[in-house]
Amino acid sequence: MAYKGKFKVTKPKKYGGDHTNVTYRSLWERQAFKWCEANPNIELWASEALVIPYICETDNKQHKYYTDLQIKWKDGSVTVVEIKPAKEMSPPDVTRRKSKGLLKEVFTYKKNISKWKYATAYCVKQGWKFEIWNEHTLAAKGIKVLRK
């Protein structure tokens, strides 16, 4: 089950965008947003504010990638973040089974790889970092990982 909702920004001056219209699309995103607000090393953060055009290898057409987080640190560096479960960061095991579910997993993985390739190149050009955070990364950063 996917969780989404409106995030109430408590520190509007720390949010780089319209702080009245912030949506989280998973509990992990919501927890990361709380962490950004509380982190004293973060000067500014925003969700889905950075849009990167990319060509998806599944259809060879241009799409728009709305990044989960863009963080400007107090030292001036910038990190662009995608939040995904660890299981979606590796290719699906195609020898495991044959089903429509597997086809969807393969399609989603290829789409994500396309996004991340373009995001990495974009960030390198800007002198920024692109990172993919999963449940293990979140926990290592002290971000509480909620499970149903």
Figure out the total of helices.
3
Counting helices, strands and paired strands, the structural category is: alpha+beta
Based on CA atoms alone, the radius of gyration comes out at 16 Å
What proportion of the residues form beta strands (DSSP E)? 25-35%
Whole-Å distance between the termini? 9 Å
- H/E element order: EEHEEEEEHEH
What is the CATH fold-level name? Trna Endonuclease, Chain: A, domain 1
| Largest sheet features | 4 strands, mixed
- Order the strands across the largest sheet as they lie in space: 3-6-7-8
Q: For this structure, what is the CATH class?
A: Alpha Beta
Per CATH, the architecture is 3-Layer(aba) Sandwich
Would you count the extended β strands for me?
8
Report what the structure shows.
This protein has 148 residues and is of the alpha+beta class. The protein has a single domain, classed as Trna Endonuclease, Chain: A, domain 1 (3-Layer(aba) Sandwich). 30% of the residues lie in helices and 26% in strands. The chain has helices at 27-38, 100-126, 135-140, and strands spanning 5-7, 22-24, 42-46, 51-56, 61-66, 69-73, 78-83, 129-133. The strands form three sheets. Strands 3-6-7-8 form a four-stranded mixed beta sheet. Strands 1-2 form a two-stranded antiparallel sheet. The chain has a two-stranded antiparallel ribbon with strand order 4-5. The longest helix is centred in the last third of the chain and has 27 residues, at 100-126. It is globular, with a radius of gyration of 16 Å. The termini are close together. The model has no long low-confidence stretch (mean pLDDT 92).
